[in-house]
Amino acid sequence: MTKISVIIFFTFWNFSSNTLYSQEPTDLEALVRSGEVFLDPDYMEPFNGPVVRFWESGKERVVAMLQDGRTDGPVQMYHSNGNLSYTAFHRSGSVEGIEKTFYEDGSLFEERSYTGGEYDGPFKKFYPNKSLNYSGGYKKGLQNGAWLRYYENGSLNVKVIFREGVQHGMVEDYSEQGELKTKGMMQDGVQCGEWIEDLVFLDYHPCIIQ
Predict the structure, then answer these.
(1) Measured between alpha carbons, how far is 45 from 135 in angstroms, rounded to an integer?
(2) Is 143 within 8 Å of 136 (Cβ atoms)?
(3) Contact (Cβ atoms closer than 8 angstroms) between residue 60 and residue 52
(4) In whole angstroms, how far apart are CA 136 and each of 130, 143, 145, 152, 156?
(5) Dihedral angle, C-alpha 75, 80, 84, 89, nearest 10 °
(6) 15: which residues sit within 8 A by CB, 6+ positions away?
(7) Residue 116, exposed/middle/buried by CB under 10 A (0-12, 13-18, 19+)?
(8) Angle 64-118-28 (CA atoms, 0-180°, nearest 5)?
(9) What are phi and psi of 29, to 5 degrees?
(10) Which of helix, strand or coil describes residue 176?
(11) Cβ distance 104 to 79 under 8 Å?
(12) Would you say 140 and 163 are in contact if contact means Cβ atoms under 8 Å apart?
């Protein structure tokens, strides 16, 4: 590509990009939805450009960008009181990176990560009082590693280990006062070895060391 061609190409790209992002948002309700694709009602082709959806009060409910009829770029949603309810980056209609959802008061409800539209990475969920409810992780769409659940007072409730979506490892369950209720091993989703359940010792088939 010659130097002049490169200049023309980038000048055109910048003009098109700026035009796309500067155009007035289209009301999402005015578009035709076909599956997961939004169509321009005049041409019945995938819509490109910024879109918005409103609450009955006139406040913004959804703000996004569509490319080929699918969300592509930052997507934000709002509660009827105006506080943010959802934020994420979309690529061709799928979440890419960190997705966050919020309670009506604006405090964080959930935070999770995506790669290629699949859960992939850390996950956290919070109580309305902002204390941690769950924490864990995913790998290629499946639960993986340690998952922890907490009581609203912050004390540990349950700890389990996952391997490729199946419980595999130590399980611990505590009362709200911190007393051990259950403890034992899971192997490929099945109890094995010695367990404590409500202060009773139980024996399952031996765990196989791998």
Answers:
(1) 42
(2) yes
(3) yes
(4) 17, 8, 7, 17, 13
(5) -10
(6) none
(7) exposed
(8) 20
(9) -70, -20
(10) coil
(11) yes
(12) no
CA atoms within 13 A on the CB side of 187: 11
- As a whole number of angstroms, the distance between CA 155 and CA 60 comes to 38
Burial class (CB in 10 A: 0-12, 13-18, 19+), 111: middle
Q: Over the stretch 93-105, which tens digit does the pLDDT of each residue have?
A: 999 999 999 999 9
Q: Is there a contact between 66 and 41 (Cβ–Cβ < 8 Å)?
A: no
pLDDT digits (tens, 9 = 90+) for 33-59: 999 999 999 999 999 999 999 999 999
Phi-psi region of 199 (alpha: psi -120 to 50; beta: other; left: phi over 0): left
* Predicted pLDDT of residue 165: 96
Distances in whole angstroms, Cα of residue 18 to Cα of each of 11, 47, 79, 95: 11, 17, 29, 24
Q: What is the DSSP string of 55-95?
A: -TTS-EEEEEEEETTEE-EEEEEE-TTS-EEEEEEEETTEE
Residue 46 structure tokens:
């995938």
Structural tokens at position 186? 């899971």
Which structure tokens are listed for 161? 């280990």
Q: What's the residue count for the chain? A: 210
Entry pTM: 0.84
